[in-house]
Amino acid sequence: MDFTDKRVLVTGSSRGIGFAIAKAFLDAGARVAVNGRTMQSVSAAIKRLGDGERLVAAPADIGTVPGCESAVKTAIDAFGGLEILVNNAGIGHGRPIEDCDEAMWDDHVDVNLKGTFFCCRAALSELRKSNGNVVNIASDAGLMGVPGIVVYCASKAGVVNMTRAMALEIAPDVRVNCVCPGYVDTDMIRRDHIDKKDDPAAAEQRMIDYAPMKRIATPAEISQAVLYLASSEARFITGAALPIDGGSTAGH
User: Fold this and answer.
1) Domains along the sequence of the chain with CATH
2) For residue 83, what are the contacts with CB-CB under 8 A and spacing of at least 6?
């Protein structure tokens, strides 16, 4: 897939899945705006990506409306427009229902749901001009219920249905799709969901066993699906929610 000179913003791209997506677009010839909460994290990511002239730093907190607008404006100002927006920034915490408080709800909704919406809103006029497209990062937990992560499930299910509604509203000018990853081998997954457990090896094995394919996805596997949906090869696809989950949403 060739993205030569395409202008791309990937939110939450200083690490993890977002970093892999940014790298994949860069490798395919695109100009990429890298986003993270701080200039320090973004600068470190850009250095890892090679410090090339096709990279732009767009630090901002996607959990706030001004942060969303700032990241998008930085990318548009640097590139003179925008063809592709990837809404990857997200958080995910697991707690029993009894321990889920308002602050936890606010954090998940602000980043996962509102952040996705307000980045889209900020980019919409430029995406209309370029007949561009949006790829949102949802989750298999947005397609089915998972105990212990109720708030996360709710926020990602919102992303899935928001993707569909946006796709209807702004077609045919702009396509909007989302990918729904299962467990992905990132530093966040290892830090928050494996290493902190009483038995990390058992926790990792549960993740491996969760999908019928009996493994955890790599960030690169998610990035290639994002590139496909953003490419001209997918020009008749909009409003889709593509599971990349090793079969987890097929049933248990």
Assistant:
1) 7-182+218-246 (3.40.50.720), 185-216 (no CATH)
2) 6, 7, 8, 127, 130, 132, 133
Q: What predicted TM-score, i.e. pTM, was given to this entire model?
A: 0.95
**Contact, 205 vs 183, CB < 8 A?**
no
* Cα-Cα-Cα-Cα dihedral sign, residues 11, 207, 94, 188: negative
Report which of 58, 64, 77 is spatially closest to residue 9, judged by C-alpha positions. 58
Q: Minimal CA–CA distance to 159: which of 97, 107, 109, 91?
A: 109
pLDDT digits 0-9 by tens, 120-166: 999 999 999 999 999 999 999 999 999 999 999 999 999 999 999 99
> Could you list the active site residues?
152
**Alpha-carbon distance 139 to 88, whole Å?**
11
